[in-house]
């Protein structure tokens, strides 16, 4: 599904032309029934149940297998400078079944999901960083679902996409829910790990190993990482509480985040006050929230509110809740947090595929796997460039020989019966 990252932030890939809030997302978080597609599926045994691991993102690219395949037609529709393409085309390339797929998650104003046949997408500018160097033998390829095309198993991923955009999915007996993070903070943490990386083998042992096989240790504590990664960075903002829970989630891979709407107190005439909502918790629909508050006032579960209106515009969210003269500001605000989605919790369960097996990962482990992936990509890219350079050097050596013996070369070509004969004699 294509979605609006300002509202429903999932796996990064495409820029949705339908969404006014911008960004790039592609998600597939529904259970996949009993349908089993051989290509792109990983299996493992849990009790007596064989579970198809289709719900989780690969820790290298931060994308589900089927979503990586969506980039296989990268050259024809992928670049952000090209014209947009229909969402249905992308779905058809990457999936054998599009049941339940929509082109967006709707909007923060309560708009329903849009059908993929009515909307268009293209890769966003930053998504190019996920695909860069993919044509330099940096990743492994496999058949797509019907074996008519080749698709990458993962992307080179210059960006730590798994943490950057987050991920969400559910399957039998397991689920994953990873919040999005700030790119600058992630880069700071990655640079810290690179600066403190140490080789755990001797120089003699290193000479006998491939660069990608040289084990590295990162002498970085979780507290040092958290000096850079302050916590999740949700696109709808809001105020995050519960630092200990956040730290625990980064250590163990499991925890939760408490998110509250950001409000402002404004004075009205005759000594009255108003509560103005300027930011909402992640994935909360503004339209549904306003409707919920109205029902609570009608049912008298929340008292002290005289007026409620939505003044949101292109400059941002502004929901005004006017209070009665005798209303207690803090009491009304606490009731709003208690009875509405002005306060929500985001459960964190960082599960991702590591070598095809789902694992619960902490922050240090995720970044360590990401760095290992980038070492592999850069090594493979360098080997590819070296191979191309040697091939080019071989051709140039031939040119030099031909130029040094130009008269003889011309004579051979003149006397040759045809082109194959000339080639055979020149060789």
Automatic annotation (TrEMBL):
UniProt-listed GO biological process terms: DNA topological change
Catalysed conversion reaction: ATP-dependent breakage, passage and rejoining of double-stranded DNA
A Pfam family: DNA_topoisoIV
EC numbers: 5.6.2.2
One GO CC term, this protein: cytoplasm
Keyword Metal-binding found: no
DNA-binding found in the keyword field: yes
Recorded superkingdom: Bacteria
InterPro entries xref list: Topo_IIA-like_dom_sf (IPR013760), Topo_IIA_A/C_ab (IPR013758), Topo_IIA_A_a_sf (IPR013757), Topo_IIA_dom_A (IPR002205), Type_II_DNA_Topoisomerases (IPR050220)
Molecular function terms, GO-annotated: ATP binding; DNA binding; DNA topoisomerase type II (double strand cut, ATP-hydrolyzing) activity
Keyword list, A-Z: DNA-binding, Isomerase, Topoisomerase
Family the UniProt entry places it in: Belongs to the type II topoisomerase GyrA/ParC subunit family.
Protein name: DNA topoisomerase (ATP-hydrolyzing)
């Amino acid at each position: 599904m294509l979605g609006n990252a300002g509202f429903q932030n999932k796996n990064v890939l495409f820029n949705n032309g339908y969404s006014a809030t911008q960004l790039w997302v592609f998600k597939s978080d529904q259970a996949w029934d009993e349908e089993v597609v051989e290509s792109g599926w990983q299996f493992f045994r849990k009790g007596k149940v064989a579970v198809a691991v289709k719900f989780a993102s690969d820790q290298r690219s931060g994308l589900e297998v089927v979503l990586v395949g969506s980039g296989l037609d990268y050259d024809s529709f992928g670049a952000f400078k090209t014209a947009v393409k229909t969402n249905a085309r992308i779905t058809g390339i990457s999936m054998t079944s599009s049941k339940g797929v929509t082109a967006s998650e709707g909007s923060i104003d309560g708009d329903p999901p849009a059908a993929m046949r009515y909307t268009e997408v293209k890769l966003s500018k930053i998504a190019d960083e996920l695909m860069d160097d993919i044509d330099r033998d940096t990743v492994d390829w496999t058949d797509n679902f019907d074996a008519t095309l080749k698709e990458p198993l993962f992307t080179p991923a210059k960006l730590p996409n798994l943490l950057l955009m987050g991920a969400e999915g559910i399957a039998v007996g397991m689920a994953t829910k990873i919040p999005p993070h700030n790119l600058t903070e992630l880069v700071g943490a990655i640079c810290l790990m690179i600066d403190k990386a140490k080789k755990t083998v001797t120089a003699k042992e290193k000479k006998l190993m491939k660069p990608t096989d040289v084990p590295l240790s990162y002498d970085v504590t979780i507290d040092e990482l958290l000096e850079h990664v302050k916590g999740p960075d949700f696109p709808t903002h809001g105020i995050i509480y519960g630092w200990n829970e956040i730290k625990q989630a980064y250590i163990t891979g499991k925890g939760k985040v408490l998110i509250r709407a950001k409000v402002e107190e404004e004075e009205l005439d005759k000594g009255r006050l108003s509560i103005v909502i300027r930011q909402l918790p992640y994935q909360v629909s503004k339209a549904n929230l306003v409707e919920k508050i109205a029902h609570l006032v009608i049912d008298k579960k929340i008292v002290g509110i005289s007026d409620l209106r939505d003044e949101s515009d292109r400059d941002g969210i502004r929901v005004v809740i006017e209070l009665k003269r005798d209303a207690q500001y803090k009491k009304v605000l606490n009731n709003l947090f208690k009875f509405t989605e002005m306060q929500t919790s985001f459960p964190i369960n960082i599960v991702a595929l590591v070598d095809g097996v789902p694992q619960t990962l902490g922050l240090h482990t995720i970044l360590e796997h990401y760095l290992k992936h980038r070492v592999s990509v850069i090594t493979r890219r360098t080997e590819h460039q070296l191979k191309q350079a040697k091939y080019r050097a071989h051709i140039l050596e031939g040119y030099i020989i031909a130029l040094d013996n130009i008269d003889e070369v011309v004579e051979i070509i003149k006397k040759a019966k045809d082109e194959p004969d000339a080639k055979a004699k020149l060789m």
